[in-house]
Design brief:
CATH topology: Lipocalin
Largest sheet: 11 strands, antiparallel
Number of helices: 0
Helix content: under 10%
CATH architecture: Beta Barrel
Distance between the termini: 38 Å
Structural class: mainly beta
Strand order of the largest sheet: 8-7-6-5-4-3-13-12-11-10-9
Length: 151
């Protein structure tokens, strides 16, 4: 059964539309920038999201990064887990179709810090994530742009 939020449908979101390789460009309002790649691959009943690349800090220092998440979608929701085994929940999004894109929002508390997330899925060819992070020691916005790799 389809869910509706403000008259907009949440049904029909299909993670398989986002399988494959992606170029990744991530910027932070604190001046850090990341360039890399991400892949989304089916793994039995869920998808693995894996990213890697190079982080350039505001000081100019460069570091390598990598991260893996488990994504579980059912056509109406998207749950993102910190671990490959899909046991440690990070975010639970309900992507709502806004006549152009699917947009999902969720929040996560980590210690004294809050992560407000927005995922925008753009028809299988691009997607964007934005995290607004706040807390006693954190105050920044992290925006990631994903485009299909041309490999």
């Amino acid at each position: 059964m389809a869910a509706f939020v403000s008259g907009l449908s949440t049904s029909g979101f299909d993670l398989s539309d986002y399988e494959g390789a992606w170029s990744l460009h991530r910027q932070s309002t604190d001046g850090a920038e990341m360039l890399g790649q991400a892949t989304i691959t089916r793994d039995n009943e869920h998808y693995l999201y894996e990213e890697s690349g190079e982080l350039t800090l505001p000081t100019g220092e460069r570091l390598l990064f990598n991260r893996t998440y488990c994504w579980v979608g059912d056509g109406a929701t998207l749950r993102i887990f910190f671990d490959r085994a899909c046991r440690n929940l990070f975010l639970h999004l309900i992507p709502v179709f806004d006549r152009t894109n699917y947009i999902g929002r969720a929040s996560h508390k980590c210690g004294d810090d809050f992560y407000d997330a927005e995922f925008t899925f753009e028809g299988g060819q691009a997607f964007r994530t934005t995290y607004s992070v706040s807390g006693p020691r954190k105050d920044y916005v992290l925006t990631s742009e994903y485009r299909r790799s041309r490999d």
